[in-house]
Amino acid sequence: IRAEINVIVCRQSITKNINLLLGRMGLKLAGLVCVPLAVSNIVLSEEQKRLGCALVDIGADTTSVSVYKDNRLESLTVLPMGSHNITRDLTSLNLLENVAERYKKAWGIIAETDIPEDNINGVRSLDVARYIKARAEEIVVNVINQIRLTGLNDSQLPAGIVLIGRGAKLNNLCDLFAANCKMPVSLGSFSGKTDTSSLDENIQLLSILDAASEIMGKDDTCLFMPTIAATDKPQVDDDDDDDDFDDTPELDDDNTKDNSDKKKAQRWRGTLTNFLNKLKDVAEGGDIKDDDDDD
Predict the structure, then answer these.
(1) What residues form DSSP beta bridges with 190?
(2) Whole-model pTM?
(3) Distance from C-alpha of 173 to C-alpha of 136, rounded to nearest angstrom
(4) Listing from the earlier edge strand, what are the strands of the sheet with 72-79?
(5) SS (H, E, C) the chain
(6) Separation of alpha carbons 87 and 269, rounded Å
(7) Model confidence pLDDT, tens digit, residues 37-84
(8) How far is CA 228 from CA 19, 122, 259, 264, in A?
């Protein structure tokens, strides 16, 4: 008998502290969720995982790289670098952090010919742009190196690199990735849908909700994309009792279910957000306020 198994490990102190905090709140741990895996379930399609792709989640301080091939996780690595490294580099130029963050978001990776000739608090704009690009290139090179370490080449990952996380919104970052490899590069979104920018901002939280529903043995996911009725129900004149027909559209069972799902998902998100706030209070030594028993 032969088996190939991926073992995902983390520092023991992390799970120990989680159990300690939950114990102080009188709660028990139902299970652990590996966020990169949970995110992949709501961002990547089965076809992308089958063909081969890399899901890159660029956060503030860390970047996770998950590589899939033939519907199997080939590698998962968390790099200790993220978009906040760029901000810290800029503060070394004696820029205030909020100023550095503003220029990072406004410019991103910009060609030197497009850089406005200006001084930013006594710092040349050219130096600011070069710092942003240099650190972004370091992140890109390390991510691609992690993909290479799996032994898969670019042609074996035809679904390419899918970028998520707030750090992935850096202007022209996709182009920088594409310039350093021969794979297609795209921004990931919630369930592959369009017009989901508000959901994409909280994609990690949504993935935890989805994974939690499975751990708790729920038959259905707490995530959904509701179908919105195209026409609002018009006002009906109560005096017209003798009308031969009523042309007011009625919501079908699917729309009714969507509305129910929407309320359920909102409760899930609210409950989890409240719990995370409590957990933060405990971690910081604050007092826990009792909420309604129904929570």
Answers:
(1) none
(2) 0.71
(3) 8
(4) 72-79, 63-69, 53-58, 161-164, 185-187
(5) CCCCCCCCCCCHHHHHHHHHHHHHCCCCCCCCCCHHHHHHHHHCCHHHHHHCEEEEEECCCCEEEEEEECCEEEEEEEECCCHHHHHHHHHCCCCCHHHHHHHHHHHCCCCHHHCCCCEECCEEHHHHHHHHHHHHHHHHHHHHHHHHCCCCCHHHCCCCEEEECHHHHCCCHHHHHHHCCCCCEEECCHHHCCCCHHHHCCHHHHHHHHHHHHHCCCCCCCCCCCCCCCCCCCCCCCCCCCCCCCCCCCCCHHHHHHHHHHHHHHHHHHHHHHHHHHHHHHHCCCCCCCCCCCC
(6) 31
(7) 889 988 999 999 999 999 999 998 999 999 999 999 999 999 999 999
(8) 41, 52, 9, 16
The residue behind tokens 């899901």 is 55
